[in-house]
Amino acid sequence: MSIAFVALIILWWALMVYAVLGGADFGAGVWDLFALGRNAEKQHDLINHALGPVWEANHVWLIFLIVGLFSVFPTAFSVLSIALFLPFSIVLIGVVLRGAAFVFRYYAVDTEGFFAHSWSRVFSATSLITPFFLGISAAAVASGQLINSSGIPDATDVSSMTTPFALVIGLMSIVLCATIAAIYLVVEAHDTEKDEHLTASYRLRAIIAGAVTAVLGALGLALSISEAPMLWQGMVARAIPLIVVTMVLGLATAVSLFFNHYRLARILIILETVFMLATWGLSQYPYIVPPRFTIANSANESSVIQALVIGIIVGLVFLLPSLYYLFSVFKLPYPVPGLKRREVEKQQQRRPGQKQESALS
Amino acid sequence: MEDLLAARAQMGTSLAFHIIFSALGVGVPLLLCIAEGLALKTKNPVWMMLTRRWARATAILFAIGAVSGTILSFELGLLWPTYIKFAGAVVGLPFMLEGFAFFLEAIFLGLYLYGWDRLSSRAHWLCSFPIWISGLASSWFIVSVNSWMNTPAGFQVRHGQIVGINPWQAIFNPSTPYETVHMALACYVVSGFAVAAVYAFGMLFRGRRAEYYRKGLLLGMLMALIAIPLQIVSGDFNARFLANYQPAKFAAMEVVYHTQSGAPILVGGLVDTKTDTIRYAIEIPKGLSLLAYWNPDATVKGLDQIPRVNWPDPALVHPSFDGMVSIGFFCLFIAVIFWGLYLLRKRQLPMQRLMLLGVFVAGPLSFIAMELGWMVTEFGRQPWVIYNYLRTADAVTTAPFLNISFFVFSLIYVLLAVALVWLLQKVVHRPLPQVTLSEDGYEVQEPVIEKVGA
Asked: N or C: which end of chain A has fewer CB within 10 A?
């Protein structure tokens, strides 16, 4: 196994983490758009509390991906930078306005004023646009038609991004993000806010969004036969078991939501996303940008990649415990050092495994 | 606008915008750490009030820093694909390590800003250490990349291919020790003066005199006082380094057209690039030779030794350099007078209007100095993006619409800046948090109407 392949696996793993963490942040923005009526303020609060402490850390995975890609596969990255100039410029604008809009509205002194309200709308709109164009870009790469056989990228050639396949994958990205977010918010509403009404409403949304994701996913799969033949052939050859697992996980998520096992549903949707991305990765192996750039012909010198991998491992030694601590303090029910006494007591009250009723009371 | 110019304008705007927030992201967390430490040690609630208020501002500033940094990481590829193919191969590692450092900063900032009610006071304070340490580390790594662009090392070019890459040699290239220290100190200088300027403003124009304002001013000025003399020494080291390693940049900074022994320092003046002369400059005879080589008769290499196509533009580099240096000395002057008065008057904070006005002016000026310094190093490297290896003109993307892209991103920066200023002035005008000390530590309430300590 080449060191470039190891690095690629790390990058793919980072993409999965970004999808389940950053993706949920996009999804929360989508739900923010639908937060209307008398419950609106409660929902804004729920989303603010859910995102506040973690969105910046979640967002860094994207930067990690960009940096990793240009360090490990510099040639492929520079080609992608040109070929995806348009969608990525839009993604960038989306990411930037979204992050800014979130803090602007979070820290607005008057949460009902024009300032907070306008930025709230920006936050939602960019939460739709960004995953859509990320999905389109991914589909364009996967279709194998982004770069023509000459290998010279052309930023004005958007034909591979406007196919029905690309549009379906773009839409699916939005809905997938919304599904992930809805399930996280169910847990948040149920365990932290203890709000039955919100819990029920997000449970319903999660089930609907999950169903739409499944339909779009199936449609994308069908369209790939004619529009992304390389991807389809790779899938048939190598990834059928993964597709089956992805589908089973999707069903299991819906079932566990239906029977009110929210924490289980959270784990299942994470696994489903991971398997979906793994399917893509495996189907497209050994290409970085099919049909021209493979792992072998676009990787950096192996000694450099080795240094990078060592750097990543050292970085992760610091990063992962810190990240675990962050999520423990704000999201997970397990005891960690450094909490206030009354927080520890609160935590003990809502430890999972206890009866739902006592947690709600 | 021509594509190359549009791309450079967009990149320049992005850097000029981002550098403000990244500098504050390095400096302010250290102030937070000190202020909260003092709050825990002295049990004086005023320190806690300061900490709380700065934390609120930091949350907003850091978020804008994070998104503007994202713009840059994308733009490296979107605007300069050929550059990133080269740089990614050689200095990917420091980019990656910068990413990790930033990651840690974001994680602990999340804990710090949103964890007031969840973390014990000691754990909360401990969370401030990784923030300023990784902030400093990330500035070090990213500036090491810029250093590499100025003095590339750790690779060879054979038949147009980059081979024999040694990422550690690339990180520790000749410029690294000079540039990284200069930038880190700049972060502390601007953060110190920025904080001090806010309280000087309150005292000058709002008539504030309370302990809250005095302590805020004091801590800001303390950081500034420690950082600014070191910064001037570091600047001197940088200039002498450049004289040997990037003679073109050095010649442009000091407008040395002709190689000469006993070269003078030229202060100010108008550079005429048509006739290659400078007019109306104040001349300090033999000053440059003395400063650069400790020898009044040393020979200083002029632009005439360098092919004209490789010249940076002295009309841009020289005024930027002069501006930076003069502001640097002005800031040093303010800091020294301030602390001189403080010690002379038996630890009484100097409150003279003129003194406060000086501090207030030094705040924004120090940011201008930082921007100018950045322009010296960037304009001074032109026409190269990777010195002596890759021209900026050869690195730009083939993508179209760069004009529109520049226009759109400029609009975004204007929008962000306006919203940010509006929001920050709201934060400043918010009544101070009410802080009380109990057995459990500090209890803080954000009051709605009442003003405390004002």
From this structure: N
Give mean pLDDT, residues B285-299.
Answer: 89
Q: Which pLDDT does position A352 carry in this prediction?
A: 53
Q: Which amino acid is at A77?
A: F
The per-residue DSSP string of B232-258 comes to HHHHHHHHHHHHHH-HHHHHHHHT--S
CA separation (Å) from B423 to A110, B13, B66, B148, B420? 10, 22, 17, 38, 5
Q: Residues of A with CB below 8 A from B70's CB? A: 59, 62-63, 92, 95-96, 99
Q: Give CA–CA dist B338/B362, Å, rounded.
A: 12
Contact A138, B438 (CB under 8 A): no
Average pLDDT over residues B133-138: 95
Chain A CB contacts of B71 below 8 Å? 92, 96
In angstroms, the CA A284 to CA A235 distance is: 8
Instruction: Quick: pLDDT tens for B212-231.
Output: 889 999 999 999 999 999 99
- Candidates B96, B121, B422: best to mutate against A (most CBs of A within 10 A) is B96
Least confident of A264-268, B306-310, B390-394, B433-437: B433-437
Of B67, B95, B427, the CB nearest to A100: B67
Asked if A88's CB is within 8 angstroms of B74's CB, the reply is: yes
User: Which of A308, A323, A337 has the CB atom closest to B96's CB atom?
Assistant: A308
**Whole-prediction pTM:** 0.90
Strands annotated E in B294-343: 299-300
Inter-residue contact B335 to B224 (CB < 8 Å): yes
